[in-house]
Design goal:
By secondary structure, the chain is mostly helical. 55% of the residues lie in helices and 5% in strands. A two-stranded antiparallel ribbon has the order 1-2. Strand 1 and strand 2 form a beta hairpin.
Length: 183
């Protein structure tokens, strides 16, 4: 009769063989699915449950008093690249985590600072581009903006595509087929 440790090693060996022929992004998806299926939370991390914080980014995954991710942790999760993506993330965060559906450019700048993100070279231009070119934001009256349905979907789609290892450097525009595959 094998010991519990032997069974654990055997399971690890079988898992390694099963995952060995897959690409890295496929391995991540399988591990995430398995951890979810077994109700293990973030067990796909080798540090899960050990109390070890392997990186600064991992240690930032904290929540505020309302149970929402902090702005810094939100940005670590979403990883926006362009100024338009960053503005859209800020707008999404203000709307969903802070309950501020309408906001001024100054509020986006302040949240950007709170999230410890690089300063915008020109926040007003980034907001204007997110509004006019990408239509991720819209006018809300009184000099305020609000995130549009397109902006909300852009955040979801980019995270979904990133999770699938399909994000491109080009833009946040994804075909409907790719979005459907993710859900």
């Amino acid at each position: 009769m094998s010991s519990k440790a032997d069974k654990e090693v055997e399971a690890m060996q079988k898992s390694l063989v099963a995952l060995g022929g897959l690409e890295q992004d496929e391995q991540r998806r399988v591990l995430a699915w398995l951890a979810n299926k077994l109700n293990l939370g973030n067990a796909a991390s080798p540090f899960a449950g050990t109390g070890v914080k392997p990186t600064v980014a991992a240690s930032m995954a904290i929540r505020d008093s309302g149970g929402n991710l902090t702005p810094k942790a939100f940005f670590v999760e979403k990883r926006p690249v362009t100024d338009v993506e960053r503005v859209t993330c800020l707008a999404y965060y203000l709307t969903h985590s802070r309950g501020t559906a309408q906001f001024k450019t100054k509020e986006l700048s302040e949240l950007n600072k709170e999230a410890a993100q690089p300063k915008f070279s020109n926040t007003a231009v980034a907001v204007r581009n997110a509004t006019n070119q990408n239509q991720f934001l819209s006018q809300a009256g009184g000099g305020k903006k609000q995130i549009t349905a397109r902006g909300e979907e852009a955040r979801k789609e980019s995270q979904c595509a990133e999770d699938l290892g399909e994000i491109s450097d080009e833009s946040l525009y994804f075909t409907e087929r790719r979005v459907r595959e993710c859900f």
